[in-house]
Design goal:
alpha+beta; 357 residues
């Protein structure tokens, strides 16, 4: 169950992008919630009984609540019972928050057992990574600098839509920092993995520009402009929904046919082109892409020993998060959890049936 998992909007998904402001053809904006892999699951059809307690306040006189009583607020003088509010919170958000606390505690303990600690810089790295992936899912293939203000604004929108507080988000970031440290301490790569990464890095590659569009109507308008003689680079800057690559006229970093961080259909369309030609509309998820081949780059054959450190870094970046998620799931499955509140226990068990919780 990939809920709250902070591998957000990866390039291997739908190549989603953040819409920039067009001057002619408006684009359908991407819902920011799609940056998360899955919405929170809640127990279905859970009956909730609301009970307000009558009171008779004197007009213009503040309501006096008994110390140690069960009222948590008043609505027009009617007391709201604390238990009603708590039970609602337990059913809707309690299980998700508890899961994060369980995972964090177990993973922090595992790291401590191995003598591993995290720093503020490690947590800042996880935050930066999350922000980059929300703002620009194609970050590994673009050189455009991160627009900090826009990216932070988008992150805040995502958190608000998911009803995740900054404190909860910090728990997730710290958990991921611990996971990354544990995985890095255990990682070993096989010869086959090095050879595959060598081919991705130094095999035959292509360099392309792309224009990302939301609808077939937008595709038709952009194609008309290209056919009228406007440069692909200029049109990409104005109309592409991928704000980061649009800054560079749609230019992406070179990639090989084996680059699994890009969808196969995108790679196939790029490698089928001749230099200077433009593809038809290539659909990836909910988006359409027009691709122009800029350059074919022949395979290189550097000495493996001289590029080993670079390949190791690439492999860690590529493979760490799969291992992190596997460890996260394993930790939750194996944790011994006793939940004393019956409402929270019911919600947590419903959420974690697939783990046998």
């Amino acid at each position: 169950m990939r809920v709250w998992w902070l591998v957000i909007a990866t390039a291997s998904g739908a190549l989603c992008g953040c819409a920039s402001t067009p001057t002619v053809a408006p684009r359908a904006a991407q819902p920011v919630a799609t940056a998360w892999q899955q919405r929170d699951r809640r127990p279905a059809n859970v009956p909730v009984t609301y009970r307000a307690v009558q009171s008779t306040p004197t007009p213009n006189t503040p309501v006096s609540l008994p110390i140690g009583g069960t009222a948590i607020a008043t609505v027009n003088g009617r007391r709201v019972d604390r238990k009603v509010l708590v039970d609602l919170l337990m059913r809707s958000r309690g299980a998700a928050v508890l899961e994060q606390l369980v995972a964090y505690d177990a993973i922090e303990s595992l790291a401590a057992d191995r003598g591993l600690t995290i720093t503020d810089a490690d947590v800042a790295f996880e935050r930066r990574l999350a922000v980059e992936r929300i703002w620009n899912p194609l970050a590994p293939f673009t050189t455009a600098p991160l627009n900090d203000k826009s990216a932070e604004h988008l992150l805040n929108e995502v958190l608000q839509q998911k009803n995740i507080s900054p404190a909860e988000f910090t728990v997730v970031l710290r958990r991921n920092a611990y996971l990354r440290k544990i995985v890095a301490s255990e990682q070993k790569f096989s010869e086959a993995e090095y050879e595959a990464e060598f081919e991705r890095a130094y095999g035959a590659r292509v360099r392309v520009r792309h224009i990302q569009l939301a609808t077939t109507a937008e595709v038709a308008r952009v194609q008309e402009r290209l056919e009228a003689g406007e440069s692909f680079e200029s049109v990409a800057r104005t109309y592409s929904a991928n704000q980061a690559s649009a800054q560079n006229g749609g230019l992406l970093e070179p990639f090989s046919m084996a680059e699994d961080q890009l969808p196969p259909v995108f790679r196939q369309a790029a490698f089928a082109l001749e230099p200077g030609t433009v593809s038809g509309a290539v659909r990836v998820g909910n988006w359409y892409h027009l691709i122009r081949l800029e350059q074919r780059i022949p395979a290189e054959r550097p000495v493996m020993a001289l590029v080993g450190d670079k390949l190791t870094k690439r492999l860690r970046h590529r493979l760490s998060e799969g291992s992190m998620y596997a460890l996260y799931e394993k930790t939750l499955r194996e944790a011994t959890i006793k939940i004393y509140d019956p409402v929270l226990r019911e919600a947590y068990q419903a959420r974690n049936k697939t783990r046998g919780g």
